[in-house]
Structure formats: C-alpha cells, structure tokens
Write a structure and sequence with these properties.
Elements lengths: L3 E7 L5 H10 L3 E9 L6 H8 L4 E6 L5 H14 L6 E4 L8 H10 L7 E7 L7 H18 L11 E4 L3 H4 L8 H12 L4 E8 L16 H17 L1
Parallel strand pairs: 1-2, 1-4, 2-3, 5-7
Antiparallel strand pairs: 4-6, 5-6
Helix pairs in contact: 5-8, 7-8
Length: about 240
C-alpha cells in the first residue's frame, strides 16, 4: 500500500526519537505525525528539532491527556488530509518498535490493506519479565472470554489502520491506555477485519520509563474491558 502516515504519540521523549523519525522516513512511510502530549518544558528542544524535518508534522497538547487522546488528535488531522494517505501506522516514541518490525507490518499491508493489522509481540524474549508475559496472557484470555475472538496481543501499540476506519475510531471512548482495547472491541462490533502479524522481541530498556504504551497494569486493563462489556447491557 502506498502513502502511509506514521503516528507517534509522544510524552517526554528521548533525543533518540529524532533519529528514529529519520529512519522511519527512509522507509515507505510518506509522512509522520507526532503528537506532543503535554511534555515537560525541558523536552521543547526535541520537538523543535522534529518540526524542522521534512514530512514531519508536530501537533501539540497544552496538557497530558493520554495516549488515546493523542491518537485521536492525529486521526482528526489525518482525516482532514485524507486524500494524502491510504492508511496510518501507530508506533511508540521510546524505541519499543524496531525499524525491522515496522517494515514487516508495512509489508503486510500489501496483503491486509483493509481494517486493522496488529503487530503481535514476542513475550518470550530476554527483555520480557514474567509479570509482563502473564499480564499479556491474562488480558488476551479475558478478551477472548468476553468477545469470543482470540487476539494474542490486545495492547500492542504497533498497528496499521486503513484510512477509512478513522471516522468511527474518533468516536471510540478512552483517552489513555484503555483506548487500545476499546478500539478492538469497537472493531469487532462493527465487523471490521482484524489481522495479526508476529513481530520480533519485546523491547524494554532497563532503567527507563515508557510513559504510556502497552504492557503493564493488567488489572486496570481487565477492569476497563469488563466495564466496556457491561455498559450496553445497562442501557
């Protein structure tokens, strides 16, 4: 698929994000939308450098509202420019997703050009803790129990989304990490196709904090999932 835009929600990113953006633009990605989700002032210089990169657009929030809110801001912008791309790929700002994994998902869009494509992570890597492994397993099993669809990685942040799915995604509730799961629930209800592509090893740098992305808080994720499941029955 041609003309794919990358979306990067960013909160207090590292300097390495600048290099990563250049690497992404060296692939088939045609533009990058970065959402500065209320980062601290000391990170202003990083975003100023990003603004200087051709084909890189920086959108900004005055305060931190969460990953889901950042994604919706980028979705709104890209839908207003929808003639310029056929799909979007969401990636993390803290080097969670290797360039190789991004390229793999991009390649698979030639096969799965509609709906949502999930980059499913390997939780058996040396960087993965027992807690993250079982957290992912439990959330996936609970998702299958509630919605009768087996998905191996419901919290992955590496996703391709066809441009035509953006209008309904903007209406999905959730401003923080719960948006990832809510997106999949809404997709199933709409019979939007969901595909899974196995990517490489999970990457978590020791002694660093990933501000919002994908792994921990299994109990909170399950609680949100259950609330989302029960809401229609309470109407």
């Amino acid at each position: 698929m041609k003309n794919i835009a990358a979306i990067i929600p960013a909160f207090n990113p590292q300097q390495s994000l600048i290099t990563y953006v250049h690497q992404l633009l060296a692939t088939t990605i045609t533009q990058i939308i970065i959402v500065n989700d209320g980062s601290d002032e000391k990170y202003t210089g990083i975003f100023e450098e990003l603004k200087k990169i051709d084909s890189c657009k920086v959108l900004e929030h005055d305060r931190n509202i969460g990953k889901g809110g950042a994604l919706k801001t980028a979705f709104t912008y890209l839908w207003s420019q929808r003639g310029l791309c056929q799909g979007v790929i969401t990636v993390g700002a803290h080097s969670q997703h290797t360039l190789q994994d991004v390229k793999l998902v991009l390649t698979m869009t030639k096969v799965f050009s509609e709906g949502i494509v999930l980059g499913v992570r390997n939780f058996h890597s040396s960087d993965s803790t027992l807690l993250s492994y079982w957290g992912n397993r439990v959330t996936s099993l609970f998702f299958e129990l509630l919605y009768h669809r087996k998905l191996m990685d419901t919290q992955t942040g590496l996703r391709f989304i066809s441009i035509k799915e953006l209008p309904w995604l903007l209406k999905v509730k959730g401003e923080r990490y719960d948006y990832d799961t809510n997106m999949l629930v809404a997709a199933l209800k709409r019979k939007c196709p969901i595909f899974e592509v196995e990517i490489g090893q999970i990457r978590i740098k020791k002694n660093t904090v990933i501000q919002y992305d994908e792994i921990t808080k299994a109990r909170s994720i399950i609680a949100k999932m259950l609330m989302n499941y029960l809401k229609p029955r309470n109407r």
